[in-house]
Specification:
about 400 residues; 6-stranded parallel beta sheet; 15 helices
Amino acid sequence: MDSSFSASAILDERQLEAVEACDKHRLMIVTGPPGCGKTHTVRSIVQKWKSLGEKIVLFAPTGQATQVLQLAVGDATIPAYTLNMCFHDYHVSRAIRNREACLVVDELSMVSLQMIVSFFLSLEGERASAGGRRTLKFKRLVLVGDVDQMGAVGGVSIAAALMSLRRVKVVRLERVWRQGDAASALARNIERLRDPAPFRFADLAQDDSFTIVMRPELSDERTRAITVRQFWEAASAETETRVLCMTTKTKLALNLAIQSARPESRHSAPIAPGSLVRFGDLVRCTRNYYTANKRLRVANGAVGLVKPGPTIEYAGYADDDGATEFDLGAYASTVHAAQGAESSTIVAVLDAETFRDPPRELLYTAVTRAKKQCVLLCTPLAASMLEKERKTSPETENLARQLKRKLDA
């Protein structure tokens, strides 16, 4: 390791391996379960690159994940962008190509096929010769994420495709520093869901940190909403609670059920005639908003409080002129929308009619959003579907071949 660099805190063996390899491999993946120190490892990698005088750019698939990454790195001088901005903003991609920068892409499991293809296209340089292939103009690329989570919408696992390539260095972080007691049911179930061995729903453990409610009647929308409201009321008085579900339709029903349970919302008027949003509600921003110098002002997914005016108060910004778009989605969200987020308590609602993704990866993604406690609501049919065998999709295998050709160039 470079003598001018020293980690800000103790690194375990795998974290140290990643930091030592970051200036030896052009393409590296750092993966591991929640709480294993991926963020601290990235911070140490960035510090090392900076000590070597490298140009650094940070990327993430969403605005919210971009903000989290830049805060985690702790250096406001290092630019951070969404992956889409790299493709759609010529000045951003040109600056990266011209500087031969070292890049970090966080939340790899959230990266879609379109995002990764567009990202690599935006980094292509000129052809070396007539008819020759274009080369990728970056110095080093570190991709970070939990490869056991479900992939982005579309069913293609970018992580699996990249990890199948021999020239990609893969570092797996194993030691979990978070999720409390390693003997808790929550921690044990996370490990069980990661295990590639055949899975049985009956293998899931239960204690105060992990509760399973399995009832056939949970397939009924009204019963499901009433049950979720009861658990939300019981948990939210003491902890930060988030409800996760599978579809937008279910999300709306659950948000309305929770809204009716909040005194701040129940006794308030709608912000406009016919609106579902009331004064005192918590709302979710539905797109990214930037400042004139391309700094993210409000991220897609940011939570705001509705006050008289109406004014939507987000962290660090108050929208009092209706500039932001939002919906009633702060109480319950889809599992896809919750990727990259955490809450003390997660209430995960699974039903067999809504599985569009591999059920086991979907459950793992939902459960790993919980820092302390998870409540799983499901039907017996949903429980049986969670036991389906994992398979690599043909689309993932095809992407691996395409990426190999691109990297060989």
